[in-house]
Write a structure and sequence with these properties.
Elements (H helix, E strand, L loop, with lengths): L10 H11 L1 H23 L3 E10 L3 E2 L5 E3 L3 H4 L2 E13 L2 H69 L5 H36 L26 H23 L3 E12 L4 H5 L2 E10 L7 H68 L4 H35 L2
Antiparallel strand pairs: 1-4, 2-3, 4-5, 5-6
Helix pairs in contact: 1-4, 1-5, 2-4, 4-5, 4-6, 4-8, 4-9, 6-8, 8-9
Subcellular location: Cell outer membrane
GO molecular function, one term: porin activity
Keywords: Cell outer membrane, Membrane, Transmembrane, Transmembrane beta strand
């Protein structure tokens, strides 16, 4: 992969740098790796678990003068005490359903995280692209303002000669002079606006640069069809459906009997005397069974909760499907209208540019009034601004349409 430029100018460069620098994308990638580790942890939990058990319990007994116990446990139960030091190994058995469902849940979580990463990358791309177009529009406006100022300054020098020659009055020239000074202010305002928008773009992408560079014209994306259920925004509801199914199976698994194989070895005695402890070393094993009997109908309540979540999921997905189709059709209509509008504005700009050029020549000979020339320049400036805005709006619609094709 080629290194990112220090002062990016292309949209693709800003997108690449933003993807590299995004802490949210890195955090999502780390969560995907953590999900893989969770699967390994679950596998280890299903293996043999070994732990140590130690106890030193004494059960006092108080008797009366007749030798009858008045306080304490039955000696047949306690034998006076319990002293143990054991190593115990346990392993779940006959839990294939529980284990497979746990693995499916972890796999589903991994799919959700990867889809979240796609959504995050798409949102990042959308925000960077939108700000790039805003900055590009400001840069285009600055370029035009500077070009117009250069032309006015050239005319200013010519008009001074015409004023000195008596072709124009000094009061007429002052109107043009004020227009030049106003355009100088406009150029400075446009420069500050471009610097601000470019700075915001660099801030979003994580670019440490302050130089004022010219951005390259972004290439409009190709026209692609609307993405269906494979779109990240749609796929999240498909994954939610799978998660709810697995949650229901997890409820079922929780009510299945649980069996553990148990094996322990060590010493266990009812006396703390060394001789008794020495003869109390042994081992044992067997099975532990846990069977749920009654929990107040919690299982049915959990089913009801899952069903309500499923109803919400279906409602969201249906609304989003209609919303995306409506937005896609609207954007296609906007692009068609923008194409027609751009054709009209470009024709008007061409005519206005020709008129300004002709008036500039006549101004040099004194055949056109300065005020009329300035009115033409103002109209040309307004049309050029409208052309820039229309081009940027069309690009925004093209990119927005492309997002819906993801």
């Amino acid at each position: 992969m080629a290194p990112a430029p220090a002062s990016p100018r292309r949209l693709d460069d800003f997108l690449g740098i933003a993807r590299q620098n995004s802490p949210l994308l890195r955090a999502t990638a780390n969560q995907v790796r953590q999900n893989s580790l969770d699967s390994l942890v679950r596998a280890r939990q299903n293996g043999v678990q070994i732990g140590g058990i130690g106890s030193a319990l004494y059960y006092p007994s108080v008797t009366n003068s007749k030798g009858e116990s008045v306080l304490g446990y039955d000696n047949a139960v306690t034998n006076g005490g319990n002293y143990a030091a054991l190593a115990q190994a346990t392993k779940p058995i006959l839990n294939r359903f529980q284990l497979q469902n746990d693995y499916r849940i972890l796999a589903s979580q991994g799919q959700v995280l990867r889809n979240t990463g796609r959504l995050t990358a798409l949102d990042l791309r959308r925000s960077i692209t939108d700000q790039f177009l805003t900055a590009y529009a400001a840069e285009r406006q600055l370029t035009f303002s500077r070009s117009l100022l250069g032309q006015l300054r050239q005319q200013d020098a010519q008009l001074r000669k015409l004023v000195d020659a008596g072709i124009f009055k000094q009061t007429q020239y002052l109107t043009f002079y004020l227009s030049v000074r106003t355009q100088e202010v406009t150029v400075e305002q446009d420069r500050l606006a471009y610097r601000r928008e470019l700075g915001t773009l660099r801030f979003l992408a994580g670019v440490a640069d302050t130089a004022l560079v010219a951005l390259e014209t972004p290439s409009p994306p190709s026209h692609r069809p609307l993405a269906g259920l494979t779109a990240p925004s749609q796929r999240q509801y498909t994954l939610d459906s799978l998660r709810l199914l697995l949650d229901r199976q997890a409820v079922d698994a929780a009510y299945r009997p649980k069996v553990n194989a148990v094996l322990d070895a060590g010493l266990q005695s009812s006396s703390y005397l060394p001789m008794a402890l020495a003869h109390s070393v042994g081992f044992g094993g067997g099975l532990q069974l846990a069977v749920p009997i009654y929990d107040g109908h919690q299982r049915q309540l959990q089913y009801q909760r899952l069903e309500l979540s499923e109803q919400s999921r279906r409602g969201y997905r249906q609304f989003l499907t209609v919303q995306r189709r409506q937005q896609y059709d609207q954007l296609e209509g906007l692009i068609r209208d923008s194409d027609a509008l751009l054709a009209r504005i470009r024709e008007q700009v061409r005519v206005a540019e020709a008129l300004v050029g002709a008036a500039r020549q006549q101004l040099a000979t004194g055949d056109v009034a300065i005020l009329d020339y300035l009115n033409l320049v103002t109209s040309y400036r307004t049309l050029q601004f409208s052309l820039t805005q229309a081009e940027i709006d069309r690009l925004r619609s093209r990119f927005a349409l492309d997002y819906l094709a993801e």
